[in-house]
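Extended Data, record Leucyl aminopeptidase
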Amino acid sequence: MPHRDFATGDADALPLRLVAPETLDAALEALPEVARGWARAQGFKAGAGAVLALPDAKGGLWGALVGLGDETARRRGRFIAASAASKLPEGTYALDPATDPALAAETALGWLLESYRFDRYAEQFAPKARLVAPEGIDAERIRAIAAGEALTRDLINTPASDMGPADLEAAAAGLAEEFGARMAVTRGEDLLAGNLPLIHTVGRAAAPDRAPRLIDMRWGDQGPTLTLVGKGVCFDTGGLNLKPGGSMALMKKDMGGAATVLGLARMIMALGLKIRLRVLIPAVENSVSADAFRPGDILASRKGLTVENNNTDAEGRLVLADALALGAEESPDLMISMATLTGAARVAVGPDLAPFYTDADEDAAAIARAAARVADPVWRMPFHDPYEPLIEPGIADLDNAPSGGMAGSVTAALFLRRFAEGTRYAHFDIYGWNPRPAPARPKGGVGMGARALLEAMPDLLGLA
């Protein structure tokens, strides 16, 4: 849950004005004389994220100004005003009622996201500035989104010592209990009996208390069907294709897809969307032991397709394959997978964009429009059919790691599409980590694409 909520009551709240350079003069003229003189004496220019506390005539705190920056800064940034939550003096603040409604909603959400702290292992500085929910915004929706994002961040930030497959299962179970969802889990050798061989293969080398499993959660009994599939590789050594130490440092985040779909599921359930939701999470640890799967092995899958395993470090697509095949058997109205799948995606678009794949132009357009509205940037990538032969090795139906090193994200997506065949499908190849602090996005685990998908749900699923 977020560490902060909106402040209650605004009778004594301090005025908070969001100001752009082009509106600065008018904003200053509207201030009380002492506050106006102070702002001018301080040379406040309304630069992006600049904060100025304003005195009253008795030397107390009257309120504050927050700079939005010029047009270029606003185009390049998002949640610019949210950084004020960490910069302002202690107090309860209220936005000017004349604030643009869209800006007020973005600032309110950003304020809660900026106030997030991961404090499980060490005390963290918590912002002391509180914000009254601005009039005219959907405060309950913003709370639900912030809570879902906080869940995602907490799960990703937790190291693998405390976030193995069983811990991820426990997190899903807690969510299911909170919202009255149903959950079933298939573990260990039962994966073979349940025809989920790829999940078992990838996770079988882990210690018994970190056995592989498939988490299957269902919620809702009316409306269109949505299946979310999240990669839950709780730690990825690379298997026998062992990663170098530098590449292993952030592998606690390799369950970022699972964390993101659980965060999105929390948003959906908290808001009571009229859909029938299913969440599938293959939760494994890709370890090294005498029982580890090997390069060159031919692997069986739930769908019946055989896979030549040419890299044990391309394990995420293997566990997703069985989960997607299972999900596709029910022919949901829409199936979405989210995974920290390829380094190639990060090379292509960096850590800030969530690349996604879909064959449906209408779905792509709906997701892109929604992403722009809620400042959750995405970028469509191609399911490029001419690359299909790259994932067909000849000795087996599919190759999980084609040689050549080109189009790695595209070939991974094409591999997954084979297992979602016959279903309306979108795949997100996310990073799940913010390498540098930014407004509303501290360094560390971060959700990508979830808010865009939530915003797009009415168009994607025909919700009223």
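Summary. The longest helix spans residues 139-157.
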